[in-house]
From TrEMBL:
Protein name: C-type cytochrome
Pfam families xref list: Cytochrom_C (PF00034), DUF7133 (PF23500)
Domain Cytochrome c: 623-718
Record's keyword terms, sorted: Heme, Iron, Metal-binding
PROSITE patterns according to UniProt: CYTC, PROKAR_LIPOPROTEIN
GO function terms (MF aspect): electron transfer activity; heme binding; metal ion binding
Amino acid sequence: MKLINVLSSIFKAELYCIVIVLLIYSCKPKNFDEPQISLDNYKIESGFKLQAVASEPFIEAPVAMDFDNKGRMWVVEMKGYMQNLNGTGDDLPNGTISILEDLDNDGITDHAKVFLDSLVLPRAIAHVYGGLLYAEPPNLWFVDIENDMPKNRVLVDSLYSDGGNVEHQPNGLLLHIDNWIYNAKSHFKYQRKNNKWIKKPTAFRGQWGITKDNFGRLYYNTNSVQLLGDYVLPNTLTENPYYKPQAGLNNKLTPNQRLYPLHATAVNRGYVKGVLSADSLLLNVTSACGPLIYRGNKFSNEYKQNAFVCAPEANIVKRNILTFEADSVTAKQAIEGEEFLAATEEGFRPVNLNNGPDGNLYIVDMHRGIIQDKAFMTPYLRSLLAKKQLDTIIGMGRILKVSAENSPQTTAINLDDLNTKTLVNLLNSDNGWLRDRAQHILIYKNDKAAIPLLKNILKNNTNEIANIHALYTLHGLNALNFNYLNSILKTSSVKTICHTLVLLKAFASEIHISKFNETLQYLLTKNNPEIDLYALSSLKNWLQLNTQTFFPVAHNIVSKYKNNTVYYEALINGLSGVEAEYVNYISSKEVTPGLKSMLNLVVANRVNKKQNGIYTRRKTYTDSRTAGYITYKNMCATCHGFDGEGIESLAPPLMNSEYITEASEKRLALVLLHGLTGPVHVNGKLYELSTTMPGLANNPDFSDADILNIIKYLKSAFAGTSEKITIDDLKSLRKLTPENGAVYTEKELADLIEN
C-alpha cells in the first residue's frame, strides 16, 4: 500500500510539473518564422540599404508608429480602410495598436502582441507621460501602460477630430521641444500638467503627418504640396487673436511638386490634362504625406535635417535639402530627376516616416492596393483599380528601415533603466530621437536632481541644440525664473537666445521692466536678424505693462526690415491689445504703406470683433441648414476651413466669395456637382493652386437634397443670404457635365453661366 501511495504521489507530482510547463509555454508569446520579403523591385539612393524589419503576418495596414523607451515599435493598424472598391466595412472595429518585438535580436520582428484592439480607423499614437496617447476619431484617448497592457483609460478630447472624412482628420501627435503635442490637420495642441489635460489653439497645419527640425520649426504638407512649413517657432505669430498670419506660417517650401516614378501607377485624376506625362508617368504629387526631417546620426552630414516626404500614389519617398535663414526656409530636390527611394511594386504605400532610436530612418508602408478614399474616388480610378486588380492587395503591411550601406546593426538601449546623469547627457546626443525622449522622461519623472546638471549645460554653452533641450527641460520642471533667463540672454548663442526670449515673456512684470529693457538694448546691438525677429514677437506681455518703454524698441527693430512681412507679423503678434495705441505712436513717423495697411486691418478686426479662426467656432444651426453644416464640416471644411477663410496652398476662401454671394446659384451648384480646377479668381485675387476640387455628382452618398442642404449652409454662413435654387434645378444641372468629361475650369463656368 505504501508503495502504491508513493507511486501515486510521484505520478501526481509529475503531472503537476507537466501542467505547469504547459501553462508556462502557453503564456509565452507565439513565435513565427521571420517572413522573407523581397525588395528587388525597390531602388534606393546609392550608399544606403533597405530592409524590411516588420511585415505581415505581424502587421496589417500600418499608418503610423512610435518607439517606446525600450526601442520597440508600436504600430497603428487601420485595417478597416478601403478594404474593397466600395469602401464598405470602414466602420468595423477591427483596428489595432500592436507592439512589435525582436526576440532573437537579429533586427527583424518575430513577434507581435496586440495592445489595443476593436478600434475603428485609429490614426495616431504617441508615447508620453508613461502611457500611450492615441487617436480614434472622434476621440483622443490616453492609457497608462502596465506590463504591456492598457490601464486607466482617460478621454482627453471628445472633439479631437470633429468632422472630416478619414483622409481629412487630425493626426500626428508630435511631441515638440516646447513640451506641447502638435497635430496635422488641426489647430489645437495638447499637454498634460498636474494630471490634467490642456487643449489650446495653435496655427492650422497640413493634412497627414507633421515633423520638426532641430531648432523647433514645424513642417507638414497637403496631398498636392509635398512640403509646407513655418518660418518661425510655433505660436510666435498667432498670439494676437485679431490677425491671421499670411507670411510666416504655412509656406510652400518646394519650388515644384515634381515626381520621378519608375513606372505608371493608378492615380485619381489621370484623365486630366497635365497630370500624366506622355509615358503615363505621374508628374506631380497628388497624395503627398508623412513628411520627416531626418534628425538621426547614422547618415553622413549632407543628410542631416533633410526633408523626406512620402508619395504613396507613385511608390516613392522623396528627399529635399533644406536651407535655413533667419526669416525663411526653402527646400529643393536633392538629386534632380531621381528619387531617394522608388519602387515598381504598386503595393508599396509609404504613408509615414520616423526617426528611430538607433539613428536610422523608418518607413511605414501601408502596403495596400487602394489608398484613395471612396468619398473622392473618381470613376476613372475605380475602373483602373479593378482592371489592375489592385483591390486584391490587402491584408499586408511593412515597416522598412533605411540605413547607411555599411552600418552595423545596433541594439537599442532601455531608457527606463538610465539614471538622471545619463539622461541629461543624452541631451548632447547627435540623435534627435534620444534627445527628445530624454527630455520628456526627465520632465515626466519630475526629476529635480537634473536641474543643476541642466544648468551646467547652459553654463558651458558648447552645444546649441543641447542648450535648447536643457531650457525646455528646466521649463517642464518649473525651474525657470526671470533672473535666470535674463542671464542666459547675455551669455548664450543666437538660437538659444531666441528660445529664451520666447520663454521669458511668461515672467514679464513691472519690477522686471528696467532689467529686461537693458538686456534688450544689449541684444539689439548684435544686429542679428533672428534675435530681432523673436524680440519683436515676444514683446506682447511687456507692451501690455509699459508701452512707453517698449514702443520705441518695437519701432526701431521693425524699421530695419522694411517690406519684410514676416517681421511685420512678428510686430503685430507683440502688439496684441495695444495696436491702436501703436498706430497713434507712429502717426508722425516714417512707416511703409504695407505695415500701415496691416496695422489698420488689425485695429479694424478688433473693433469688429473679427478673430483669427483658430480662436472661434462657427455658429451651428438647428433648422434645415443643420444637415448642410454637417456635410460642410465633414467634406468641405477640410480644405476651405471651418471659418470659410480658406487654407493656404489648399483652397481659396468662401467667405463673401462671389461663388457664394452672387444672386444666381447655378455656378455654385455646378461646382459642387462637377468640380473645379484652377487657376481661379476669388474676391479679386488669383489662386493658382495645384489642387482640384472633385464634384459630388458621381458620389452615391450624395443626393440632390444633400447638395441643396450644402448650398443652404454656404449661403447662410458665408454670405448671410438664403438660397433660391431648387431640387429640380439641381436635377437639370447634373446633366451639364464639362466638355472634357473631367471638371470645370473658371472660364468654362463663366461661358456656361453667360449663355
